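Here is one chain, start to finish.
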Amino acid sequence: MLRFIMEFSLFGRNFTQKTGILELMDDLGQALAGDGEVSMLGGGNPASIPAMNEVWRQRLQEILLQDSGVELLLAQYDTPQGNPGFLQALARFFKERFGWNVGPENICVTNGSQNAFFLLFNLLAGEWGQGKSRSILFPLAPEYVGYADQALGSGHFHSRRPQVVLQEFPFFKYYVNFEGLELREDTGALCASRPTNPTGNVLTQDEVVHLAGLCRRSGVPFLLDNAYGTPFPGILFEDVEPFWDESTVLVLSLSKLGLPATRTGILVAKPEIIQAVTASNAILNLASSGIGQSLVLPFLENGALWELSRKIIRPYYLEARDFAVQAAVEIFAQRFPFRIHRPQGALFLWVWFPELPIPTRSLYERLKARAVVVVPGEYFFFGMEDEDKDWNHRRECLRLNYARPKGEILRGLMVLAEEVELAFGLPRR
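Its structure:
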């Protein structure tokens, strides 16, 4: 009997291999499906904020009570660029509040910001014909693990080692190392996030302006991931002004407003990029998802989205961050060396254990065996140059999600402390 062996193309092999993001999502799903107490500190799911849940519940009820409300929400396609009313409201919001010179032609909607970056990375980098190729440069690693496997070819990404600056205990912070930072002829785009997943780092205004200037002078786009940032959802604990200019492709998301299941990403860019993403969207997705746009539209029109971000979302995460930092310091103190990246935004603690005898990939496996799910730091340092691959710091960090119930966080931190002690060969307390 002949045995059928399934074979895939290079594209298929690339997208079906075991990747960091696939393993993470599998582990999260298995942990949630299991029995017993689990500390789910590994995922990126935003918190379920009761006040925001009530906002969306009331908005859904309002839509359902409208004539043809259900039909408008569920029974028709929007355009591949997005709902025209939503695009107009966004353009008006950006122009009136921040003075940006944008119109609907500068904005499009994708099925999540993850989908947006897949399109951008492969539109702006990869094979270029005549034996040439272009790549994406990340000026500061570590960066979001979800970027790492989105390229359709190899050699797509290059990342640079950051400056590591110790601050008052227990904090440290990464800064862009501008020494020797150049955009080469084969650089298709420069990409950074603000604030950054996994570290909570917020690029300074000087860093953002410097990076945008490099891109403007070189004629390449500056991709700025704003999924956690300002003006919405506003999970930022520093005074930060939103940034956009014509060299910038600003990418936003509705997920952290409490709408991750609507899969709504937003791009603000010059029209040529918007047209290219819209054309790609039509082929890959047919249309943009309209549910998130319909839910958010009146809050854009009346200015309430800005207030919801500042008065509900930001305070909620700030309190959660402060609790997690204080708990980590109290549990880890006097037991082993550690530092926490200053959490300036997003919803993660990035913990560094200097001179940890085992890689955090092994620590991750030990924790998973005890029903504590984290994310090892190695995944976030993709695209590093050969001389950086032996940099021990890459194997001494891990990411924790603090947007979880307090009991879950405390249990997870206590188990983590025990396993780190074992790794250092210290007696358990």
